Amino acid sequence: MGALSSLRVAARRRAIMPRWVRRGDAAAARAGHRRRTGPGVDRFWRWLSGFADDGVLWSTIAGVVAVTGKPRAAVRGIASLLVASLLANVIGKQLFGGQRPLLADVPVGRRLAKQPHTPSFPSGHSASAAAFVTGVGIESPKTGAAIAPLALGVAYSRLHTGAHWLSDVIGGLALGTGVALLGGRLVPPRPRDETAARGGADRRLPASPDGEGAFIVVNRSSGTSVVRPDPARMLAERLPRAELHLLEGGDPGEAVRVALARADPPPILGVCGGDGSVAAVAHEARLAGLPLLVVPSGTFNHFAKAAGASPASAAVDALQRGEGVRVDVAELSFDDDDPITVLNTASVGVYPEFVTERERHERRWGKWLAGLMAARVLRDSEPVTIVIGGRRANVWTLFVGVGANDPDIAAPLGRRRLDGGVLDVRVLHADTRARAVASLAFGRRTSGILRGLGMVPRRIESFTTTSLEVIVKPREDQPPGFAHDGEVATATAAAAAAAHGNRGYRTAITIEPGALDVYRPAVAHATR
Q1: C-alpha to C-alpha distance for 274 and 145, rounded to whole angstroms
Q2: First-last CA distance in the chain
Q3: Which helix (H) or strand (E) holds 399?
Q4: How far apart are CA 235 and CA 210, in angstroms?
Q5: Is the dihedral angle over the CA atoms 329, 334, 336, 340 positive or is it negative?
Q6: How far apart are CA 336 and CA 503, in angstroms?
Q7: Angle of helix 252-260 relative to helix 275-288, nearest 10 degrees?
Q8: For the chain, percent helix, then strand, then coil, each to nearest 5?
């Protein structure tokens, strides 16, 4: 009976669909409805289909993509989604239309709580999914490939729940992919930005052609989600007399402190790792007044790219020639504790919570998949109450960047200046959740287009200063953690809050101009 009804409904679809397409739809529906699945499987596909309603899933992932260092990919993905959704739902469904599968043929456990009543062809969910993923992939192929299975999952969920025919899903996927590819032709992606940040004059630093005198901490746990040659092998070949300290987890700063306490402390410090490892060793280099070699081997390497020490071979070239630059850093302290050196940014709110959740899954799933799993934080998180400049405010996130940053972004994760002597503060005041997520992807230039769609926050406060004091209030009796260079000081924040009877904790952030010497190729060499 179910097979007959599916065939009849498919046959009643508009005549513009060829007969063989209608018969194929009916056959696919029969095969899918006959296949037995457990209640847990059915519940997952219902949840995924519902999460993708109104682009909520993709706007959440756009926030994840943006805060992991690829805002252009997030913007292109959402822009492609908006165009594809418009074409599918406003034009395509009116032009092609058609009836959806008969609800009586869909197993009860698979049915959506809210059944769609719009025309069937094409699938808007599938078009949006394909457009977003393809758009992201145009700017960042690896990121697009990582989330492509999720787009296919959303498309399949529309079949599993009986919301669409097979041809609807295929048509939607083709439409979304085509829209994104056309957008890539009309607005070509910008080449990857490996350019160093502005500012910072070349200066001579101690040269070491063979690595003599250099103590380099190699954090083997950094960048495990990125496929690249082993940097330790390159360092051993090009710097045979350097002392390489291989670290499997643990504190890079502690390894440096032990080396500096020796009778013959090293005159040059180095670190091979991600931003967190670099910041830890940079702190010790500052205290000792020693130059720092940064060999990028993390996932994002924001500071190495900003300083001009990327790729790793360029950093080694600079050490061998004795070329470098003096850069600003910031100091972050909790109450009266010893300060922490910050190289890129410090923040409190949604972003630190996202980082914390990502780290929970990172060892098992890798950073990229863990980031997708942590996306629920961006969806479920609540605003944070802070006191800044004597003003109390509810905010989604407070970002404090080292050095003046691009005015068109809301989340300054990577610095744009090496000098200048200022902190760049961005306050994302509490608004609707969708706008809070979108704010991590869109800056003011793009928001001029999208504000009318209700996708960006109305209040993004920005200013520069040389020092800032912030009081962070507890939320549900737990003080939110404060992030710095990809690390979250949860325990330190909790201890500071406990010292004040869990009424919150105070942080102070101060710019330290020209406080660190870093090896990087001279401008003449970098240009060549």
Answers
A1: 23
A2: 74
A3: strand 391-402
A4: 10
A5: negative
A6: 16
A7: 20
A8: 45, 20, 30
User: If pLDDT is split at 50, 70 and 90, which confidence band does 244 have?
Assistant: very high
Segment 289-339, tens digit of pLDDT: 999 999 998 777 889 988 988 888 999 999 999 999 999 999 998 876 788
Tell me the pTM. Answer: 0.66
From 324, 277, 283, select the one nearest 520 (Cα to Cα).
Answer: 324
- C-alpha distances (whole Å) from 380 to each of 56, 60, 375, 434 are 12, 10, 9, 11
**Which tokens go with 111?**
């049915």
CB neighbour list of residue 292: distance below 8 Å, 6 or more residues apart? 269, 270, 271, 281, 282, 285, 516, 517, 518, 519
Residue 96 DSSP SS3? coil
Sign of CA dihedral 361, 366, 372, 378: positive
Predicted confidence (pLDDT) per residue in 11-53, tens digit:
444 446 777 877 888 888 778 777 788 788 888 888 888 888 8
Contact 304, 72 (CB under 8 A): no
349, amino acid identity:
G
Write phi, then psi, for 347 (nearest 5 degrees): -160, 160
DSSP sequence for 99-157? PPPPGGGS-GGG--SS---S--BS-HHHHHHHHHHHHHHHH-HHHHHHHHHHHHHHHHH
Of 68, 65, 142, 64, the closest CA to residue 414 belongs to: 68
